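ERR on first pass: missing label on line 2. Operator R.T. fixed the label and resubmitted. Corrected input:
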Amino acid sequence: MRLPPFTLHRPRELGELLELLARYGDDAAVYMGGTELLLIMKLGFAEPGHLVDAKSIPELGELHVSADRLAIGAGVTHRRIERHHDVQRALPVLVDLERRIANVRVRNAGTLGGNLCFAEPHSDPATLLTALDAEVELAGPAGRRRLAVADFILGALSTALDPGEVLTHVHVPVPGPDTLVGYERIVFTERPAATVAVVRGPAGARVVVGALGPRPMRVPHAEMRLVEDDIDAAVEATSSAVADTDTEPGADYRAHLAGVLLRRAWSAATANALSVPGAAAPTKQG
Amino acid sequence: MRVAGRSEVRLDIVDKVTGAARYASDAVVPGMAHAALVRSTVGHGVLRGVDTAVALAAPGVHCVVTMADFPDVDPFYGEWVRDQPFLARDRVRFIGEPVAGVVADTEEHAHAAAALVVPDIEPLPVLGSAVESLAAADLVIHPDRASEDPELPNVCYRSSFEYGDVDAALAEATYVHDATYTFPAVYHYAMEPHAVLATWSSDGLDVISGTQQPFKVRADLARIFNVPLGQVRVRAPYVGGAYGSKGQSKYEPVTAAMARAAGRPVRLVISIGDAFHTVSRHHATIRMRTGIGPDGGIVGRDTVITYDTGAYADKGPRVARKGAYRAAGPYRIPNIRSVGLSVYSNRVPAGAFRGFSTPQVVWAGESAIDEIARHLGVDPLGYRRQHLKRRGEPFLGDDSPLDADLAEGLGVTAEALGWGSSVPTGRGRGLAVGVKDGGGGAARSEAEVRLHPDGSVEVLAATSELGQGAKTVMGQIAAEVLGCQLADVQVRLSDTAVTPFDRGTNASRSTIGVGAAVERAAEGVRRQVCQAAEEVLGISEGLILDGSDIVVGEHRQPLMELVCASRKLPPEEIGAYSATGFSGNPTGSGPLGAAAAFYEVGYSAAEVEVDPETGQVRISRFVSAADVGFAINPAACEGQDEGATVMGIGHTLLEELEFVDGELVNGTLVDYRVPRTTDLPDDFRSILIQNRDGPGPFGSKGAGEGGLLAVAPAIANAIADATGVRIRELPLTPERVWRAIQPVEPQES
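pass 2 clean. output:
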């Protein structure tokens, strides 16, 4: 459990960062909070010769909250998000999620952007951000582009980042008062064992299950049932979807858990809505 | 009492909180080199050779050693069964077993070179558990070792106790409860992994190690390297937690061997990942049959415990023997038979772990008693109280009489939980009691106390300060006897060249063993001061020390003047008052060969809430009671009791070392979950029972393990109360609980 040798670079601008990545190619890794990267390096699973520390790039440290969206720079730590009053007002469910990530030491160093780039299947934010239709902004040799989080995370520890490309921002739409949002998780060891996010607004519903597969999984059948206000059927559809994809021992328990978490997330979402004057309330409760 | 019985602030607290405290890994000596070990990645195999050439040529490397470099030493250690070489010799027996050592100028160079060493191992089939190795008659893990039973060649050690006629009792019983329980292998997780610094010189071998048993390590090193005891020095500075993982030899022999080969001091500090691969608590399977007579009395108990001892004996044989003995339990049962087996497998070796064999058998015994009470339709508390042994009855055979009122202690615990009052909806309550013969059998402890002419005191006692507060308690004992302030007492840490002999810091024995020796040494010093006072002043009644003065009645005088007058010497020549003391528990009586020095009793009572949807168990309330005889430092006793309880919550709800074909697959702190503050009971009380009926100073008993003994059955009994479902397999994970509470689907006929 010791770090292999590497050269540390500290670019001050995004352009400089991209130049370093272009120069060192596969032998370089972007180093932000280091909570995942340094751990896998200590375990011997990665041995980059060059760590490019992006914490000094001002643009990546930005955190903007406007009426309809959050723009969170790739260098913004979990701790900053959880303590940010405007984020609390705009998207309390995200603050609540961030507060529960790992422990305070991890949250003080680790970043939301880094969490998404690592694409650990048990990530809390990935599940919620997928359900919220959040996007990531990427910068690379070919310029800038945006991708839905759902398209960015390709699988376990795998993202759509091209060689030499970095994540610069996470853009999260702020749901309107007519939208219900809920997130629940269950944790047995260090990382969540199962996570479920639910969003229902005028445009439809999202049900996303995390930690039970290589990447967050949308459950379209459950979303349809939820649009019909049939939470029992949505729970059933969610459990079935997990049971269909999980072939490991204990799958029945995990499928059941996903359903339980959906029901709880939905209860939390409706309870939140009822506590906000003028917010949408479901027509029928599960 | 002036000093004893008070929650004095720990003598080491400031240094520990500020980081000034020095541990073995902090030790530095001139010319020191750094070591790394090469470990087997094969669970079982023939070690045909080790290619060290590339590693030897790597930057900064002084030497690379294998067992072939030590033809002159006897490399084996282990308690009762010496089967573990400090480096693998001709076989490897578990993943993680050291096969070579690299010594280099820096830790980085040592680890880089270690990765270049290539062991040549011909794999053998792996015996992944005790169950597999009991079934394998042809595959023998230690083929060169004579086995007691040729049909069970992988049994390391077998121990049995028999009283009365169990078979007849069970045949005549009106009800026989027959159940098998399992207990997981778990990791000690001492925050400080093992660290050793070894130096050879013309003075002999000098070792600094975070060990619980410096004198045992000294004896091992003297035997292995054929060096006289007087030329081996083992120092144990502050130890960052041990819980049994740092008893007997661990990495001291291999570090000394590397230092000898390198011709310079060598420091070895292992990682948590390596500590996971060093020693564990025994996985155990316990089959227990209990016979009940027509009046509800317990007529017989027949127990077979299979302890998975892993690749090497370590302390496994002793664990099996003590476990068999303690399986008899604290109830009046006329017919008892217990068999304890220590069985080899290709797993990480299992050894001592806080509670030493007992949590496993208490898990079975206290679950079984609860099941029986429920079967009989009687209150589990009432049933226990009716059948618990009374004070003065022997635990088993002709062992020492019980020095505790078990029924009363359990009653106090149950009452604190509100036993008998209505249980909130969705919750359940359970309780359990665990008894362990304390003190670790035959043992001797010695100590020295010095009173300097300025009134300052030094205590030389070889108790390892593991974080339990022994340093402070030894100081309180000396201060109480001498009549001085704790602030005037300096307690030195273990150093076999300086501190007198002690068997080791284990078996909750320091207070009654070393503490009693300190008490007697301090009494010896006090006698000398009083004698001087009688000579010089003609009075000594009620003499106390107050800083640099003595005070006798109305008379106050500098101690220095008294000593000068008594010894007829000038101040710079007067020396010190010094005395030694000892305590011992001799062999020659009791079923274990040495009567129990005392009985360590732990009572646990739990109220739990089970989430029927997820199977998660929340401990709403928990009461633990420890019978400590007399609490010399009550805060320290409570800390021990609470810490032991939390450790017990670990193996009850969370912890299990998972092995797949002998490979530990969750040996990191990310995958292996220990209790956190969020796992604490919502309401948690610790009660100290103090009847001053122990053999230690001021009527104290040992403490530190009791709180752990009965946690698992108390919680499982509470779950059974809440759900009606009995689970006999630990840990009680959410998935396991959820499965257990699912309605059973009707079987098709």
